[in-house]
Amino acid sequence: MRRLLPVAGVVVTLVTTGCTDSSEPSDASSRRPDPSSSAPASSGQPDEGQVSAAEPPELDGSERMAGQQPETKGNASFSYAKGAAGDALIVAVRCRGAGTIKVVVKTVNVSFPLECLAGKTRTTYNQIGVSGAEKPGTVSVTAPSEVHWSMTIGRGEPPAEDQQ
Questions:
Q1: Which residue did the predictor score with more confidence, 155 or 19?
Q2: Are 147 and 101 in contact (CB under 8 A)?
Q3: pTM for this entry
Q4: 15-41 in b/e burial notation, b at 16+ Cβ within 10 A?
């Protein structure tokens, strides 16, 4: 599932996997790999609920790692590296456990909540393509102590913007 989210005048592409039991048709063109194979993943894949929050989300082959946080409980902050001019920032979060976490990326003035579920792993991919996204920064997460989460920060091509 891909949605463009307007966040304070910026475009954020959100890709969510494994968070619904929807009977929607799968999107075979999704760019996220299944952790257990090289086949593309799609929303609602049954295997996603079996993935541990201890395994930080993967980037696709065209994206570069900028930072990573292993499994964490509760609040934490970590830094990520500078990217090349024009790079988009990818914020991939995986969580498990009942509660809502809040992710804040001050460098690009973006924050978003993620509802985490007891007994299910939920993964989101946010692609942020705004001026300044190439700068180094810090990600802060506020989370209940019952929620296990991990995160990968990456760099890649900016998202395609829909012209209206």
A1: 155
A2: yes
A3: 0.70
A4: bbbbbeeeeeeeeeebbbebbeeeebb
